[in-house]
Amino acid sequence: MLFDSTAPVTPPDAQVRAEALAAVSASGLGRLRELGAWVAACQGVFPPAPLQRCRVVVFAGDHGVVKRGMSTLPPEYSVRQAAVIDSGAGAVNVLARAAGASVRVVDVSLDQEGGPEQVRRGSGAVDVEDAMSAEEFTAAVELGRRIADQEVDSGADLLLPGDLGVGNTTVAAAVLGALTRTEPVAVVGPGAGMDDELWKIKVSAIRDAMFRVRNLGAEPEELLRKISSPDLVALVAFIAQAATRRTPVLLDGAPVTVAAFLAERLVPGTRQWCQAGQLSPEPAHLIALQALELTPLIALDMNAGQGAGALAALPLVTAAAELLADQA
Fold first, then answer.
1. CA-CA distance, 219 to 250, in Å (whole number)?
2. Which of 40, 115, 296, 308 is geometrically suited to a Cys-Cys bond with 48, CB 3.0 to 4.6 A?
């Protein structure tokens, strides 16, 4: 087992949280009061310090299941969009500049000749074959942990994991459906857009993937190896390691929130270091949020991935911390 469910994750400081809530009990700040107290508890100090290095890390990967023709986006979109983000363009960079954050893209499994971080080129079509080998699964876990350590060691005080890849919502929905015993039709979402025929293809692929792992509910790591993807596995490890390193995480859409759900299952206590930035139109997103008992800060129907929805909510988090410091 690569994830140790018996290793305790130190929770945010409950005493600091209580002190923060008491200090601004009559402030009228509503949920911003709770949000600011969470930041203070994560930092272990009241009043909380301003959030000065918020970091978006986009985990990019391609997925063999898209060969079924379930997306309106071409398969090469993932590689092209990763290059756009690397160049400093795209919605995620616009929102990051507006929110005072920075962006990093990690090629975990894009369908191209990658660099030293790449685990493999693309991933298996999970409806008929395993997503990755055991060695590749281990490499994806180690990559996610290593990147979390790099960001925390370089001074990140809030991490915003993002996802990029055609077919990533399909993979996330299949994993969530298998682990929560939710019917495929209930976890399927619009992704990047679809008509009735594409919806049928997507449901069939998720159904077949879930059937392949129908007896692996008690073996989540093996289930992930078979029907997830290296980029999703790296996301899980990244979020769990951030929590282990006592660094708060602001979640984005369905793939990221499903990854947080998996991180909590594999490393209990992770969810206490997470806030839900937004609610997207993906049914799997809402199911994962409910399982984590997290309430999103905004609901703008954003389905862009890449951390964009979390970035749209980031100003609320930074403002909540500064409001508590001012009230104190």
1. 27
2. 40
Residue 160 pairs in a beta bridge with 56
Q: Cβ distance 226 to 216 under 8 Å? A: yes
- Cα 14 to Cα 18, 45, 159, 240, 326: the distances in Å are 6, 11, 21, 20, 21
The answer as to whether 324 is a domain residue is no
Cα separation of 249 and 147, whole Å?
A: 14
User: Which residues, listed in sequence order, are joined to residue 105 by a DSSP beta bridge?
Assistant: 58
Question: Is the residue at 140 inside a domain?
Answer: yes
Domain-located, residue 21: no
How many domains are there within the chain? 1
163-208 confidence digits (pLDDT tens): 999 999 999 999 999 999 999 888 886 655 566 778 888 899 999 9
CATH of the domain at 240: 3.40.50.10210
Return d(Cα 73, Cα 62) in angstroms, integer.
12
Measured in degrees and rounded to the nearest 5, phi and psi for residue 5 equal -75, -10
For residue 164, the enclosing domain spans: 52-314
> Pick from 303, 306, 294, 312: which is nearest to 34 by CA?
294
**Residues in Cβ contact with 165 at an 8 Å cutoff, skipping those fewer than 6 apart:** 60, 61, 62, 63, 78, 109, 110, 229, 231
Type and span of the H or E element at 155? none
Question: Which segments of 165-318 are extended strands (E)?
Answer: 249-251, 274-276
Say if pTM beats, i.e. exceeds, 0.85.
Answer: yes
Buried b (16+ CB within 10 A) or exposed e, 46-73: bbbeebeebbbbbbbbbbbbbebebbeb
Residue 96, in any domain of the structure:
yes
